[in-house]
Design a protein that fits this description.
- The complex is a heterodimer of chains A (303) and B (262).
- Chain A is built from eleven helices and five strands; from the N terminus they run ββααααααββαααααβ.
- Chain A has 303 residues and is mainly alpha-helical.
- Chain A has one domain.
- Chain B has two domains: 222 residues, Immunoglobulin-like; 39 residues, no CATH class.
- In chain B, 32% of the residues lie in helices and 37% in strands.
- Chain B contains seven helices and 14 strands.
- In chain B, the strands form three sheets. Chain B has a six-stranded mixed beta sheet with strand order 2-14-13-4-8-10.
- Classes of the chains: A mainly alpha (303), B alpha+beta (262).
- The interface between A and B is large, with 54 and 61 residues.
- Strand 5 of chain A pairs antiparallel with strand 5 of chain B, so a sheet runs across the interface.
- Chain A: It holds the Pfam family TauE.
- Chain A: It is found in: Cell membrane; Membrane.
Chain lengths: 303, 262
C-alpha cells in the first residue's frame, strides 16, 4: 500500500513511515531525548526532500512534546517566567532561522547545508556522549562520584535587568535565557529539531536552574517554539507535510511509550553509549553522502 | 505543435483524395488522471483507429504509429556538482525556460527505424529534438559562464538524463497493440513523479517516412480529494495551514498519549 504525500509530492509506504516514527520514538522514550535530530536525517535517507523533512519535523515535535509538557504542567514542574522568556527568544530565533532557511533554499544550497550541519552536530554530540558514558562506565566501580557545584560566573551576575525567577529560585538577568532561547530557535528552524539536548544542559550548567523544573520548562519551550517554527515554515517555504507528520507521530508516540518502559530496565550509562553509537552511525552516513562523488555530475531542480 | 498542424494542413491541401482517405483517430480511456491519497503512478490507454489502410500485417501497406505524450512546460535549473574542499556542493546553475517536465514517445518500433531525422525534428518526436539548448537562459554572467564551461550539449544531456532517471522522459518501442480491423491501443505508464498539469497526446500515422495523418487527445493530471485540499490550503492560505498543522499535531499527540495511558 502507498500513500501519496500532498506536500512532499511523493508516494510512501505508510507502514515504513510509521515504523520509522516508532523506532525513533522508541529511542527517544528510552533515552529521554526528543529524537528530532535523528528523525530529520532518517527522513532524508528515506528520500523525503530535505526542506520538507525539516518543516515536517517541526510539526511532529509539537505533537510529540505535548504529552510530556502537560504531564510536567500537572506536576507544576514548569517555570513559566523562564519558559516565556525562552519562548520569546525562541520565536525570534525561529524567524531568523526560517529566513536563513529560505535564502539557502532559493540559492539551491539547502540540501548540502542540512547534511553538513547535521554531520557536524551529530558528530560533536555523539563523540561527547560516547566519551562521557565511557568515562562513567570505567569509573562506575569507584564509589561516590564527584559532585561539583559551580558558582555562578561573574559575567552572568554583572548583566543588567536582573529579575527574580521564583519557581527556579534565581535572581538573574533575562538576557542569557533570551539569547539561549534565540539560539535554540534558530537551530530548531534550520534543522528541524526541538533542541532539548542543548536546552537542558544549558539550563542546568549555564542558568543553574534546579533540575526538577528543567525538563518541564524545556518541553514547554520546545512545544511553543516548534509550533511557531511550523507556522513560519508553512508560510515561508510551504514545506510542512501534515500527512507525513501525523504518520510519524502515530508511530512516535507508541514507540516512545514502549521505549520508556524498556529504558528503566537498562543501565543509564550503557543506554547513553548505545545512543552515542547510533548518533555517530547517522553522522558517518551523512559524511559519506557529502564526500563521495555524487551519482550524477549535474542536478536538475524544478523551479 | 504548430509545425505538426501546418504539415497536416499542407497535406490536406496538396494531397490527392487518396491520401486524405488515410486518417487516424485517437481517444483516451480516461482524460483525467486523479492524484489522490493512494496515487502511486497510473496507466493511461490511448485507443485509436486507422482509416484507409490495412493492418500492418498486410505487407503491401506498412505504416507506423507514434504517440508523443507531452506534459506541462515548466522552468528548471541545471546545476553542476562541484567539489569544494572535501565535500560536493551544487555550483551556480543555468535556467531552462519552458521545457516539458514530462515527455514520452511510444511507437510501433524505434522511431529512428521509420521516421527520418527531418520529420522527427519538425514534429519534435524524441527528446533529442526538444531543443533544450535553445531554452537555456544565458542572460546573466554566471549562467553564461556555466554555459561556456560545460557546453550546451552536456547541459542538455544532463536535463534529459534527469528526466529519464525519474521515468518522466522515455521512448518506448513496440508500444502499439493492434486489435481487430483498424483498431489499436497504446498503454503508457505514468510514474509517481508525474507532474501535475495539462498534457497532450499527439498521434501520427507515418508511412514511407512521412506523416500522413495525425490526431491528438488532451489529458489532465490533477490532484483531487484530500490531496487537492491540503495542497491548496498550504499554498493559498499558508498561515492558516500552518496553524491547522499545529492544531492537528497537538490534537493527535494528545490523543495518542491519552489512549496509551489507559
Amino acid at each position: 500500500m502507498q500513500i501519496y504525500l500532498p506536500i512532499a509530492e511523493m508516494p510512501v509506504d505508510p507502514f515504513v513511515v510509521v515504523m520509522l516514527g516508532g523506532a525513533v520514538g522508541f529511542l527517544s522514550g528510552m533515552f529521554g531525548v526528543g529524537g528530532g535530530f535523528l528523525m530529520t536525517p532518517l527522513l532524508i535517507f528515506y528520500g523525503i526532500p530535505p526542506a520538507v523533512a525539516v518543516g515536517t519535523e517541526a510539526a511532529q515535535i509539537v505533537g510529540s512534546s505535548v504529552s510530556g509538557a502537560t504531564a510536567h504542567l500537572r506536576r507544576k514542574a514548569v517555570d513559566f517566567q523562564m519558559g516565556w522568556i525562552l519562548v520569546a527568544g525562541g520565536a525570534a530565533g525561529a524567524l531568523t532561522g526560517v529566513a536563513i532557511f529560505r535564502s539557502l533554499r532559493e540559492a539551491g544550497q539547502i540540501e548540502v547545508f542540512i547534511s553538513l550541519a547535521y554531520m557536524i552536530f551529530l558528530g560533536l554530540i555523539g563523540a561527547l556522549m560516547l566519551a562521557e558514558s565511557l568515562r562513567k562506565l570505567l569509573r562506575s566501580a569507584e564509589p561516590g562520584a564527584r559532585k561539583r557545584r559551580r558558582r555562578r560566573t561573574a559575567w552572568m551576575a554583572a548583566l543588567p535587568f536582573a529579575m527574580r525567577f521564583r519557581r527556579s529560585q534565581l535572581y538573574i538577568s533575562p538576557l542569557p535565557p533570551l539569547v539561549l532561547g534565540y539560539f535554540v530557535g534558530v537551530l530548531s528552524a534550520v534543522m528541524g529539531v526541538g533542541g532539548g539536548f542543548i536546552m537542558v544542559p544549558a539550563m542546568i550548567y549555564l542558568l543553574q536552574m534546579p533540575t526538577n523544573v528543567v525538563v518541564g520548562t524545556s518541553l514547554f519551550q520546545i512545544m511553543f517554539v516548534t509550533a511557531v517554527t511550523t507556522v513560519l515554515h508553512a508560510a515561508a517555504n510551504y514545506t510542512v507535510d501534515i500527512v507525513l507528520a501525523l504518520l510519524l507521530l502515530a508511530g512516535g508516540v507508541i514507540g516512545a511509550q514502549l521505549g520508556a518502559r524498556i529504558g528503566v530496565l537498562l543501565k543509564a550509562e550503557q543506554l547513553r553509549a548505545l545512543l552515542a553509537l547510533i548518533v555517530l552511525a547517522v553522522c558517518v552516513r551523512l559524511a559519506f553522502g557529502l564526500v563521495l562523488p555524487p551519482p550524477a555530475p549535474y542536478v536538475v531542480e524544478a523551479l | 505543435m504548430r509545425t505538426g498542424g501546418l504539415i497536416c494542413a499542407l497535406l490536406t491541401l496538396l494531397a490527392a483524395d487518396a491520401a486524405c482517405a488515410n486518417d487516424i483517430a485517437v481517444a483516451l480511456t480516461d482524460s483525467v488522471v486523479e492524484v489522490d491519497a493512494g496515487f502511486a503512478g497510473a496507466r493511461i490507454v490511448l485507443f485509436g483507429a486507422v482509416e484507409g489502410l490495412a493492418a500492418p500485417a498486410n505487407e503491401a501497406s506498412p505504416y507506423d504509429i507514434v504517440a508523443v505524450l507531452r506534459g506541462p512546460d515548466a522552468d528548471f535549473r541545471i546545476r553542476p556538482m562541484e567539489r569544494r574542499g572535501l565535500i560536493w556542493t551544487r555550483g551556480p546553475g543555468i535556467r531552462v525556460e519552458g521545457a516539458p517536465g514530462f515527455y514520452i514517445v511510444a511507437a510501433t518500433q524505434p522511431v529512428e527505424d521509420f521516421a527520418p531525422p527531418d520529420l522527427r525534428r519538425a514534429l519534435e518526436i524524441g527528446a533529442a529534438h526538444l531543443d533544450i539548448a535553445a531554452r537555456l537562459d544565458a542572460s546573466d554572467g554566471r549562467a553564461r559562464e556555466v554555459l561556456a564551461r560545460h557546453g550546451a550539449q552536456a547541459l542538455t544531456e544532463a536535463f534529459l538524463e534527469a528526466g529519464r532517471e525519474t521515468g518522466r522522459f522515455r521512448e518506448i518501442a513496440g508500444a502499439v497493440a493492434f486489435h481487430k480491423g483498424p483498431l489499436f491501443s497504446i498503454a503508457i505508464d505514468l510514474p509517481p513523479t508525474t507532474p501535475i498539469g495539462e498534457y497532450e497526446a499527439r498521434v501520427y500515422l507515418i508511412r514511407d517516412g512521412e506523416a500522413i495523418a495525425q490526431d491528438s487527445a488532451a489529458l489532465s493530471v490533477d490532484k483531487v480529494g484530500i490531496e487537492r485540499r491540503i495542497y491548496d490550503l498550504a499554498h493559498q492560505r499558508p498561515i492558516a495551514y500552518g496553524l491547522f498543522c499545529v492544531a492537528m499535531s497537538l490534537g493527535a499527540g494528545w490523543l495518542a498519549a491519552a489512549a496509551f495511558r489507559k
